[in-house]
Design brief:
Layout lengths: L7 H28 L3 E9 L7 H10 L5 E2 L25 E2 L7 E2 L8 H6 L2 H16 L12 E6 L4 H6 L12 H5 L1 H12 L5 E4 L5 H14 L5 E8 L5 H8 L24 E9 H7 L5 E10 L11 H15 L8 E3 L8 H13 L7 E4 L2 H4 L6 H15 L1 E2 L19 E3 L4 E2 L7 E7 L4 E9 L15 E7 L2 H17 L5 H10 L6 E7 L2 H12 L8 E5 L8 E5 L18 H18 L3 H6 L16 H21 L6 E4 L3 H8 L5 H17 L4 E6 L3 H8 L5 E8 L2 E7 H13 L4 E4 L14 H9 L27 H9 L4 H10 L4 E5 L4 H9 L5 E4 L6 H14 L6 H4 L18 E2 L33
Parallel strand pairs: 5-6, 5-7, 10-11, 10-15, 11-13, 20-21, 20-26, 26-27
Antiparallel strand pairs: 1-8, 1-9, 2-3, 4-28, 7-8, 9-16, 12-14, 15-16, 17-18, 18-19, 22-24, 22-25, 23-24
Helix pairs in contact: 2-14, 4-7, 8-14, 11-12, 15-17, 18-20, 18-22, 20-21, 20-22, 22-25, 25-26
């Protein structure tokens, strides 16, 4: 007997305990890591005053130091009826200024599937969020219709609804309809986004007044870190549609009387109100890097707190501001010195600004004299209230992306209430490069008059890896679409302008982004080309209404029910030396499938079919001459080429709904339909070609352009000639001995029929094939067959195989000898409603036949052309997309090799939707305060932030 040494069992328990502790430590470290995981900003969208309707336009406004404040537009409300320079006048405001969006009454309701009656009752804040969120997703390279069912979170800062005063708060109750509540409710403002996109992640409307939208960013970051969602939209929106809040803020003395926000300036006297919408698209940095997303900036940390009890409900709290900054730094894992610039709250109040400046200096530069740079977007846009924080965050992200500081405007005389000489603070007043050697990090502050303070720290995105020079490709495909024909023309113009402004942008990146990062609608165009200038010229021609444009296809389709696609495989005679060589570099699945066919054919042929196709073959021991024009090689080469090309089309998402082939092409069709395995199909094709090659080359073939009945009458009673193919109602091929074919051609010509001799090695589908039939039947008898999994057209009958019909050995034997009833097969398919025919072969012969004989029945697309393969392939891909086929653009232009780039967003077609007419009586003109009414708090502005 044996026994364990003393103490071994207890030692094992100790080891187990230590292992458990280590595992707990690892889990704790992972959890702590998630709480600090960087969050990538992958997309931005905005609609801000000053015609800043895109991140690019907003950046230009910031860089130029524009003040977008204007007089209040007269179409908002009767300004003079609510104006009085005396702050004490009841019902009046002492300012005529604000920062407004143009055409806030306009909206593309049709795009968002909204009826006019509902759009009329919708708060413009909801409308702005719908349009700007779509644009932000497109800028992120994400198709708006591609998020259905996803764990995408929506976090929206929104405080109040002026439009509700028109719908629910007015004197006329007849305005109220079934959409009034959903049109104005704050919960619906956020909920409508998740509803429209069919998102299943968290959804939060947030109202903490001026800090609402920066809190939305914080909440989105937290939700991503806690794995509650995989993508997040953080947004803020504000719209000024009613004078009541103007009057309210005037009574608190919060507003500036003039058209400027003078934050940190000695002349600061309050803020100017503004409106707008901003959206950030956020993702965990690890996920964004793995997906190859475009990175604009990175959120490193954030924090939120409250002022608690202060000298007044809306009074700022300097220590609380310091506390939230330190919490954000801790969350980011950064020291104060690692932040260079602060996008301040900066409302331009005489006391609020000094409190903020002191808090920033204490939190960021307590023991450091390195300058902390300051600026504030409110000096450009006014105070956007519910959207103020997101405007500052977007500004910060753009500065980090461009590595530049932009001017804080309206700053001339530093506030005497800030000890500038003692504090290492510097207000940025010029557009300049990022300070050399300073960290690319920005802190963003937003303080609500509710007392909720938020601070977010962003840093520059990690540099993109170096990309090797892109190999030249003959042509790229740019797919564009829109809901209407007019919008498609507008989109074409936008893209043309973009391409001309960015001539060195990689076409593959543009094609990738347009294909994978956009939804695809009913009105479509596809343009092919090898340069930005070529694309732009063709797009401009389309925008200007030119009917026929080389390299461009445009079509209206049913995107949710595209026309059924047919693969048609070309027959013998289409081959040419070099076919496939150029495709190998641009079509990876073609290359793989061709190599597979080559390997399977070598035992049967003794030579490389790939080398034969490319003109590289040499095999002196072969039983027949080694050349592509020799039947024993022509037929396997055509099969290999067409099979490989079919697999490439399928790899790009183009799956046939039916298949048809012409003569040898029917073998490829049967293989793609699942009736033959690849190995068995190649065995049959190799035997067929070799047996035909062994026949005496005594025959001839002629095309006769006359009806089948007329040709049959000439051939009647002859046993050495037959009809080989019927390719059209007046296109018949005869085949047989040279003597018989010549005599038949002369007889037809005597009747006025045009004939054309064909260059062939043998008289296919004629009595001259009969000596090979027995041996071919023996080979075919050893092959396994299956019922076609796709509708497959028979050349022999011109009809579809039935469910119980198997193309077995007898069929393929009769196929060698019988008439190819190709035209009957086309009629079968077009009558059945198949609408797009793609020729999968090295020429355009079948496409030309379809266009000639059935031009209105379907769309006819040639997959390739001799000596133009990559370009022709691209044009065919574009044509298929334009005709509604579901191209898998991620497979055509895969992420990794290609990268998303900023492109023009959807051209919304906005129309006016509004509930017109005054909702309430205008205020009285009396400027005297009612007797006995207490005065307003004149020093409220000194405590309001």
């Amino acid at each position: 007997m044996t026994s364990d040494p003393p103490g071994l069992e207890s030692l094992s328990l100790v080891k187990q305990a230590l292992l458990a502790v280590e595992q707990m430590k690892a889990r704790l470290a992972a959890a702590e890591g998630r709480q600090r995981e960087p969050i990538a900003v992958v997309g931005l969208g905005c609609r801000f005053p000053g015609q800043a309707g895109s991140p690019g336009a907003f950046w230009r406004l910031l860089a130029a130091g524009v003040n977008a404040v204007t007089p209040i537009p007269p179409d908002r409300w009767p300004v003079e009826a609510y104006y009085d320079p005396n702050p004490e006048t009841p019902g009046k405001a002492y300012t005529r200024y604000g920062a407004f969006l143009e055409d806030i009454d306009k909206f593309d309701a049709q795009f968002f599937n909204l009826a006019p009656v509902e759009a009329n009752s919708m708060d413009p804040q909801q409308r702005l969020l719908l349009e700007v969120s779509w644009e932000a997703l497109e800028q992120a390279g994400l198709a708006g219709d591609g998020l259905r069912g996803s764990r995408t979170g929506v976090f929206v800062g929104v405080c109040g609804s002026d439009y509700m005063l028109y719908t629910l708060g007015g004197a006329d109750a007849r305005r109220v309809d079934a959409f009034s509540g959903t049109g104005s409710a704050g919960s619906i403002t956020a909920g409508r986004l998740s509803y429209f996109y069919d998102l299943h992640g968290p959804n939060f409307p947030i109202d903490t007044a001026c800090s609402s939208s920066l809190l939305a960013v914080h909440q989105a970051v937290q939700s991503l870190r806690q794995q509650e969602c995989d993508l997040a939209l953080a947004a803020g929106v504000s719209a000024m549609l009613s004078p009541e809040l103007y009057v309210y803020f005037a009574k608190t003395h919060a507003l500036s009387a003039g058209p400027e926000v003078r934050a940190f300036d000695a002349r600061a006297d309050g803020y100017v109100r503004g409106e707008g919408c901003g959206v950030m698209v956020l993702k965990r940095l690890s996920d964004a890097l793995a997906a190859g997303d475009r990175l604009i900036a990175v959120v490193r940390g954030s924090a939120v707190n409250h002022d608690g009890r202060t000298s007044g409900l809306t009074a700022p709290n300097g220590p609380a501001q310091q506390s939230v900054i330190r919490a954000a730094l801790a969350n980011a894992g950064l020291s104060p010195a690692e932040v260079t610039y602060i996008e301040t709250h900066g409302t331009g109040t005489p006391l609020g600004d000094p409190i903020e400046a002191q808090a920033l200096a204490a939190a960021y530069r307590a023991n450091d004299s390195t300058p902390l740079y300051l600026g504030g977007v409110k000096t450009n846009l006014g105070h956007l209230e519910g959207a103020a924080g997101i405007a500052g965050a977007i500004k910060a992200a753009l500065m980090l992306e461009h590595r530049e500081l932009v001017p804080h405007v309206n700053f001339e005389l530093p506030s005497p209430h800030i000890a500038w000489s003692d504090l290492p603070l510097e207000v940025v007043t010029t557009h300049r490069p990022w300070p050399a050697g300073r960290p690319l990090r920005v802190g963003v502050s937003s303080f609500g008059f509710s007392g909720t303070n938020v601070h977010v720290i962003l840093e520059a995105a990690p540099p993109a890896p170096e990309r090797p020079a892109e190999a030249e490709t003959a042509a790229y495909v740019l797919p564009l679409s829109a809901r209407t024909a007019a919008a498609l023309r507008q989109a074409a113009g936008r893209y043309a302008a973009h391409l001309r402004a960015h001539p060195t942008e990689r076409l593959g990146d543009v094609a990738h982004t347009a294909g994978t990062g956009r939804a695809h609608f009913a009105h479509r165009l596809a343009v092919t080309g090898s340069s930005a200038a070529e694309w732009a010229d063709r797009l401009v021609a389309f925008e200007q209404g030119e009917a026929k444009i080389a390299g461009l296809t445009a079509q209206q389709v049913r995107p949710h029910k595209p026309a059924r696609l047919v693969f048609q495989f070309t027959g013998q005679g289409a081959q040419h030396v070099g076919m496939g060589r150029a495709l190998e570099s641009v079509a990876p699945r073609f290359r793989e499938a061709l190599a597979e066919c080559d390997a399977l054919l070598r035992p049967h042929l003794g030579v490389s079919i790939r080398a034969v196709m490319f003109g590289d073959a040499a095999a002196p021991t072969a039983p027949f001459p080694v050349a592509l024009g020799e039947t024993w090689l022509t037929q396997p080469a055509l099969f290999a080429y067409e099979y490989a090309l079919a697999r490439q089309w399928q790899a790009w998402g183009l799956e046939p709904a039916a298949v048809i082939g012409h003569s040898i092409g029917e073998y490829v069709a049967a293989c793609v339909a699942g009736a033959l395995t690849l190995a068995d199909a190649l065995r049959l094709v190799a035997a067929r070609g070799q047996l035909m090659q062994a026949l005496p080359p005594e025959g001839a073939m002629v095309a006769a352009f006359a009806p089948e009945a007329q040709v049959a009458a000439v051939l009647a009673g002859r046993g050495d000639i037959d009809i080989a193919a019927v390719n059209g109602p007046d296109n018949v091929v005869i085949s047989g001995t040279r003597t018989a074919v010549r005599a038949a051609a002369e007889a037809l010509e005597a009747q006025g029929v045009l004939t054309q001799a064909l260059r062939v090695s043998h008289a296919f589908h004629s009595p001259l094939m009969e000596p090979m039939l027995a041996e071919f039947r023996r080979v075919a008898g050893g092959v396994r067959y299956a019922a076609p999994q796709l509708p497959l057209v028979s050349n022999v009958t011109g009809r579809l195989f039935g469910r119980d019909d198997l193309p077995e050995a007898d069929y393929w034997t009769s196929h060698v000898r019988g008439t190819v009833r190709y035209y009957a097969g086309l009629q079968t398919l077009t009558v059945a409603g198949y609408g797009v025919f793609l020729e999968v072969g090295p020429s355009t012969v079948l496409t030309d036949l379809g266009r000639r004989y059935l031009p209105e029945a379907a769309a006819w697309v040639a997959g390739c052309r001799p000596n133009q393969e990559p370009g022709a392939l691209a044009e065919a891909l574009g044509a298929l997309y334009a005709h509604g086929q579901p191209v898998n653009w991620a497979a055509v232009y895969p992420r990794g090799r290609y990268h998303p780039v900023p492109l023009p967003t959807y051209p919304f077609e906005r129309k006016r939707f509004w509930l017109d007419g005054p909702a309430r009586p205008l205020p009285a003109a009396d400027s005297r305060r009612p007797e006995g009414e207490p005065p307003v708090i004149n020093d409220f502005v000194d405590v309001l932030v």
